[in-house]
Specification:
The protein is α/β, with parallel strands linked by helices. The chain has 13 helices and 14 strands. It has 2 domains: about 260 residues, Aldolase class I (TIM Barrel); about 80 residues, no CATH class. It binds flavin mononucleotide (FMN).
Length: about 350
Amino acid sequence: MYSPLSIGSCTARLPIVQGGMGVGVSLSGLAGAVAACGGVGTISGIHPGYRDPDFAADPVRANLRAIGSELAKARQIAPDGVIGFNFMTVMNHYDDYVREAIAQGADFIVSGAGLPTGLAKLAAGSRTAILPIVSSARALRLIVKRWLQVDRLPDAVVVEGPLAGGHLGFAYDDVINGTEKPLEACLTEVLDYVRELENTHGVQIPVIAGGGVRTHADVTRLMGLGASGVQVGTRFVTTVECDAADSFKNAYVAAKKEDIHIIKSPVGLAARAIDGPLLERVAREGRIPVAHCYGCMGHCKPSETKYCISQALIDSVSGREGLVFCGAGASDAHEIQTVREVINDLLGQ
Ligand SMILES: Cc1cc2nc3c(=O)[nH]c(=O)nc-3n(C[C@H](O)[C@H](O)[C@H](O)COP(=O)(O)O)c2cc1C
């Protein structure tokens, strides 16, 4: 039997958090299904409006519209579920997207890929819970220092280890050389700091561990170390309810261990992806010229970037050749299951 997982004023019956997966991999379909089963559903806030007919002309407006419509659709699937958004701190218009999600009544906002130092100020006065994603106690300390300036602490913390999917919170060289800390070590140091915070401030801050969680044994091990819940991405991709195209899900089922690589993404972070024609073309030709700039990151130079990461992720999730992000465990996927089956499996039921 597992204890429920409290995030701010909301409580999920099960300690399973579905991690936000962009672009478009976790929208209302997946987040709603996980929340309906009693877990925590996370809608990806990375270009959620990519299917909007006006997306190319005005991505920001299309994304703002999609924040409301995806949340409403997820709530229809899980009227009593816990549902929130994941936004990457490095994205342009981060503040606008966070404000819109709060205005639409998101239960929580979770942010990584950079330090979400400004999130507490944006959420001030709202009921929306706020969670940073970190891979070290050091990063969490920096965030908390800033959040305390506006009298706020994290409602929960996600600790992500090096086996996770998408962008990683570890230096590229460390991941390549295997010198990064394993999840268990990251979790332990973050728990030590969180216990300090809890004692000083008289609060409880659940810590959620993710990155490579695939089995009931993984869940038991991490919760035995002190995690209050687990965050799971990769296992939820190969589900009927996942919002990605079938070809994206099937790329996981077909992937072998040697097909999964650490890349240096145009965002400037290490990331994990399945080898495919896009990465082969970049290796062969050096770069793929950007056909259209969506203006998603301040530091990206369209004339220099190796390829447009937004376009590459939009293409793969839409069923075209593109960039398929995945966790280290993607090669262990052998079939498409339902969200209910994955959750039962994780909980040993
Ligand atoms: C396809 C894919 C896309 C992802 N996109 C994001 C993202 O946009 N933002 C983010 O914070 N994490 C992202 N992640 C990380 C997941 O939210 C999750 O924390 C992580 O993958 C957990 O590890 P696991 O996949 O081994 O379960 C992504 C993961 C995958 C597999």
